[in-house]
């Protein structure tokens, strides 16, 4: 019986079914799903300085001829604000 | 959002050679179209998060993905971060910029409402640059920008511009009658704010003093996202995105219970 269960587990793992749900992703996002709700701690130390609009950032990149690190995130979850 | 990557010291250091843009997904139709051209999920729709590195004209250099981890593969998160930093350094050499000493403009959010929400998400204060007079506002921005990109303050604040003091009233800041900067602590939901410090005019020393005072008095409180969302739903803290949320992984779509 336990051998059958082991075979079933390995087969499902191989098919990726055990990890297919988006919320099985680790905190901070993953390869197919959104970040899982997690505890957000204040960030100590240096931080990235973000332009908050595509137009503003791209205009600056063009002016300064610098490459762009682009990220986007929704500032709400289930329409509740204050959380990425 | 992918905090582990974007808060890593080596990524932050590498980011200084880039213009870093963090758009708010579903808050602008035109931005949504731009982001969807960078990355679409399997269903062809714009998902909650997008990541890519672009050249100065806005064309993709890396492939687009949902997160840095998706774009920079590797057996461990640390390996992915190292791959990302190596790529960033290579790209920075290819695009060194016109002038490393060139002054950068203020990294504004689209408006006060969105700025306050983003600041709340990041657990950091928001600097509101406010004046009804465009000449005075420009002088103020010039002074604030110098400080915003200084080693002491870079990345420490979110920024929003206000040209009508009534906007400040809408976030609970009353009595603002003259221009200047208002350093505001967002509430947990980024819907209201409290002034931590204020500086009247474009005087660098006064603005720097206000930024320092705000940094000292601001108390960032950790959030448990699950509890935050539950409480927000219970108490009617509601955000109306500008465009429909099309992410098939979004909890509302998947029915995942919090």
Task: Describe what you observe in this structure.
The complex is a heterodimer of chains A (84) and B (258). Chain A is 30% helix and 14% strand. Chain A has helices at residues 2-15, 54-64; strands at 39-40, 68-73, 76-77, 80-81. A two-stranded antiparallel ribbon of chain A has the order 3-4. Chain B is an alpha+beta fold. Chain B has helices at residues 3-6, 9-15, 29-38, 68-71, 77-94, 112-122, 134-148, 166-170, 204-217, 225-234, 251-254; strands at 19-24, 50-54, 126-130, 158-162, 180-186, 193-199, 223-224. Chain B has a 4-stranded mixed beta sheet with strand order 4-3-5-6, sandwiched between helices. The radius of gyration of chain B is 19 Å and the shape is globular. The two termini of chain B are 18 Å apart. The model of chain B has no long low-confidence stretch (mean pLDDT 93). Chains A and B meet through strand 1, helix 2, strand 2, strand 3 and strand 4 of A and helix 1, helix 2, strand 1, helix 3 and strand 2 of B.
| Structural class label of chain B | alpha+beta
Q: State the shape of chain B.
A: globular
Name the strands of the widest sheet of chain B in spatial order: 4-3-5-6
Rounded mean pLDDT of chain A is 73
Rounded to an integer in angstroms, the radius of gyration calculated over CA atoms of chain A is 20 Å
Gross morphology of chain A: extended
Number of strands of chain B: 7
Helix content of chain A: 25-40%
Major sheet strand order of chain A: 3-4
Most extensive interface, chain pair and sizes: A-B, 57 and 111 residues
* Overall SS class of chain A: alpha+beta
Q: Mean of residue pLDDT of chain B? A: 93
Order of helices and strands of chain B: HHEHEHHHEHEHEEHEHH
Calculate the terminal CA-CA distance of chain B, rounded to whole Å.
18 Å
Order of H and E elements of chain A: HEHEEE
Helical stretch count of chain A? 2
What low-confidence regions of chain B span 5 or more consecutive residues with pLDDT below 50?
Answer: none
Unreliable spans of chain A are: 12-34
Number of helices of chain B: 11
């Amino acid at each position: 019986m336990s051998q059958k269960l082991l075979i079933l587990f390995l087969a499902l793992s191989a098919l990726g079914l055990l990890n297919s749900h988006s919320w099985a992703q680790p905190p901070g996002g993953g390869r197919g799903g959104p970040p899982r709700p997690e505890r957000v701690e204040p960030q100590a130390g240096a931080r990235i300085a973000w332009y908050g609009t595509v137009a503003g950032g791209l205009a600056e990149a063009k002016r300064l001829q610098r490459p762009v690190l682009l990220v986007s995130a929704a500032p709400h979850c289930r329409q509740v604000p204050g959380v990425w | 959002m992918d905090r582990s990557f974007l808060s890593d010291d080596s990524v932050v250091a590498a980011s200084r050679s880039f213009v870093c843009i963090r758009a708010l997904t579903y808050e602008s139709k035109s931005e949504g179209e731009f982001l969807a051209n960078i990355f679409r999920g399997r269903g062809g729709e714009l998902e909650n998060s997008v990541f890519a590195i672009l050249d100065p004209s806005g064309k993709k250099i890396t492939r687009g993905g949902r997160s840095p981890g998706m774009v920079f593969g590797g057996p461990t998160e640390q390996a992915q971060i190292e791959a990302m930093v190596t790529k960033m350094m290579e790209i920075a050499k290819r695009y060194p910029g016109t002038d490393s000493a060139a002054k950068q403009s203020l990294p504004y959010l689209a408006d006060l409402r969105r700025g306050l929400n983003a600041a709340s998400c990041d657990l950091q204060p928001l600097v509101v640059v406010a004046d009804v007079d465009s000449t005075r506002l420009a002088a103020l921005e010039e002074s604030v920008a110098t400080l915003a990109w200084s080693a002491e303050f870079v990345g420490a604040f979110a920024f929003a511009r206000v040209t009508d003091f009534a906007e400040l009233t809408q976030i609970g800041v009353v009595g603002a009658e003259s221009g200047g900067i208002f350093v505001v602590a967002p509430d947990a939901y980024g819907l209201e704010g409290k002034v931590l410090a204020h500086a009247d005019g474009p005087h660098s020393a006064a603005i720097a003093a206000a930024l320092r005072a705000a940094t000292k008095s601001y108390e960032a409180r950790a959030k448990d996202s699950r509890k935050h969302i539950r409480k927000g739903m219970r108490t009617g803290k509601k955000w109306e995105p500008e465009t429909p949320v099309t992410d098939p992984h979004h909890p509302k779509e998947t029915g995942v219970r919090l």
